[in-house]
Amino acid sequence: MDKKSVFSTLRFILITIFLLGLVFTAVMVTVLNTYRPAVKVSINDKFLGYYSSEGQFDEIYSDLVTEKQNIDPNAKVYFDSEPTFETSYIRGDLLSKQNVYSNVREQVRTEYNVYKIFIDSEEKMIFGNLDDTNKYAADLKREVPKVKTEVKSEKVLENVELTTTQKADSILKELIEKNKPVEIANDTKSKKRALDTQKHASADVANIAAMQDGIWPTTARYVSSSYGWRWGSLHSGTDIAGKFGDPIYAYKSGVVTFSGWQTSYGNIIKVDHGNGFSTWYAHCSQLIASAGAEVSQGDVIAKMGSTGFSTGNHVHFEVRINGVHVNSYPYIAGK
After folding, report:
1. What is the pTM for the complete model shown?
2. pLDDT at 154
3. Which of 225, 228, 324, 331 is most deeply packed, by most CB within 10 A?
4. Beta strands 324-326 and 149-156: pairing type?
């Protein structure tokens, strides 16, 4: 082979290497511009996503911790197990389009401390800090010493609805009012007024009772508290104890005049049956009939519960004649 041929061959080889180098460089530039190094993060073998670095993941987790502790400074925020990191590559556009918070948020566990106040074993208030809890517990013990007040702390995985200051003040006021001492002289006068009122209404009661043929207002049959004086005040209805969610029936056909919340009665429905005769159904867990609705005898108008001032699931069945409550038991006795 002459020198000219050798030179031509070398030139061809060099040009080919140069062109291959250009192609390789172009491919690498394209890959580097399209794919970027990333960190693949998993917890318990569950894929959470790609992050630009472990530092970015730590920043996101720190933001979530701050978010939770803004709700409760004492909240404990953690993962069930340590995250694992694996070096990888991902297209740049996919890396930027990820919602880097969503999957991490799903895996974060948040443990809150709550403090509950129980009155006679019934939960009444829930607070997120011990100072408010101790304040209201002390107020209750001082103002209403006859009731049993307990404070219990619990750990919950999700933040529960806390009792507002306004609501706590209202509950405290109602408990004080309900349990305030009654002077003997005033107690005697109150009893006499109540008996006089009932006697005055007795004629109407008898006439309406003759025209009415109502039904027992629920499936349960146990009378847990009768109409009459108890704890220094007049209990205005007949309490029938049952299970949470038991149906409550309309005693007679009529029109619902009220369906909602009323202080110590809790959730209550009032039905007007005409001729000054009405029935009330209190402490409901659920109100089904709404105000203004016409109901027929036996319709399910509510569900039994323990709302308002209540120590267990029951319906407080109350009969009113011209707005005055009377002994409701004779209206359901024998039904």
Report:
1. 0.43
2. 85
3. 331
4. unpaired
